[in-house]
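Chapter summary example.
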Amino acid sequence: MASNKDHYDNEREKVTLGEERFKELPKVKDETVRENRQNEVIEVDKVIVDHDQIPDKRRPVSKWKTFGILAAIGLILTIFAETIRAAIFRSDDSLLFVPKGGLLIPPVGVILIIVGAALMSIAFISLFNRGGKLTRQQKGIAVLIGVILVGLGVSTFFRYVDFRENTVTDRTLLTTRSYTYLDVTEVNASTIVEGEDNRLSYNYIFQNGKSYDIRVNETNMMEVRRIDTKIKGTARRSIDNYAIQEMERMKMYTKDEALNLFILE
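The structure predicted for these 265 residues follows.
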């Protein structure tokens, strides 16, 4: 019996080709499934990490969107630059708010401010970018040009003449001069050609030789009439026939009123 039992035990431990025997086969399968599940979780984590490392292709679109918003704001400021200036600097008792002529007007000033600010931004950003192509001297020049452009752009908002109830204020960025209507020594009414039409123009000359021109139309003619009443009677006045006709057309003055004001007075 002992030999048969030993033979049976040897038979249980014997491994033959193509045949395996397992004592706890269900446990082995369960561990295999658990191991596979753990591997699957690891693989998912790897996929998530890899996804985070993929560059976001939408970022260039976001940059263009930001640029578009800034460009739209700049365009709006350029279009309404004159209105913004009048809202800020026009006095409460202003009769006529007249911008000075030339190229340095607020719409141009907004463009200069934007360009100058962009140059300064590029220069300051490049200071912290060691891989940049700009040298130290080029950065300094860019900042200097940017400051000049911004200053020149801001100065355009201060170039105006404000005809108030009792005074005339001539304003620039660095100077402010005021005159009274008693300082007016000469008033000239004439017409200028704009397209196919004649436009009424007033020219005021002050004691110091300063001269200001006003284009008169249906919108501001009543304010010009009020200014006419504030100028002293000893001021020299002149008017031509075309100016009288334009006054009659706008119903600013009748012919007799214009003659009495500019010639007989």
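To summarize the output: DSSP finds nine helices and eight strands in the chain.
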